[in-house]
Amino acid sequence: AKEAYNKEIGLLNDKYNYQTMMLDRRTSEAIDGIQRQIDAIDKLTDIEELAADRAAEKQHMTELEAAVETATIDEDVTKAKQALADYRVEITRKELLRKRDADKDALRDEQDRIREAARSEKNRLKTKLEANITTQKGIYDNIVDTNKRLSIQADIDLVETLARLETDRVAAIQAETDKL
């Protein structure tokens, strides 16, 4: 009875563990899907902001170039050219920083792909392990059942052999008694 109880409790625990694992997996997938949507919105916003920034920069650059073209006094021309050169340096620096940010984003995306691949592999390995454990448990249970049957059969055979030996012994004694 205790063995049947332990087996039933083990099956209930296995069922609970499987159900919670599947719930965790579904929850993680749902949350990951929502995060992907948030990331897409953020990326769209970043693209729009970048386009607006570049348009403003282009507009300012056009204004500075026009200032250089329209300046008539040498001092104004020099100041306008310096302002234009300074702004070009600033824009070059901003573009460099944007490129670095894009490179970092690409690396973060690669990290996320690696994490996702690892998570998928872990889930695959866990599923495989659970299947192997279930298979091994079935094999073990069959061996235990077989051993019980063999033990019971051996006990029956022993009792039958002992009974036959006793019968033979009694018959031998009776035969010896009959000879006398």
Verbal overview:
97% of the residues lie in helices and 0% in strands. It has 180 residues and is mainly α. Helix 1 runs antiparallel to helix 2 (74-179). It is rod-shaped.
Chain-wise SSE layout:
Layout lengths: L1 H69 L3 H106 L1
Helix pairs in contact: 1-2
SS class: mainly alpha
Q: Round the mean pLDDT to the nearest integer and report it.
A: 91
| Count of helical regions | 2
Give the ordered list of helices and strands: HH
Please report the distance between the alpha carbons of the first and last residues: 56 Å
Task: Specify the helix fraction band.
Answer: over 70%
Main beta sheet: none
Per DSSP, what share of the residues sits in E-state strands of 2 or more residues? under 5%
Evaluate the radius of gyration: 43 Å
Low-confidence stretches: none
How many DSSP E strands?
0
Rough shape? rod-shaped
Give the structure's gist in a few sentences.
By secondary structure, the protein is mainly α.
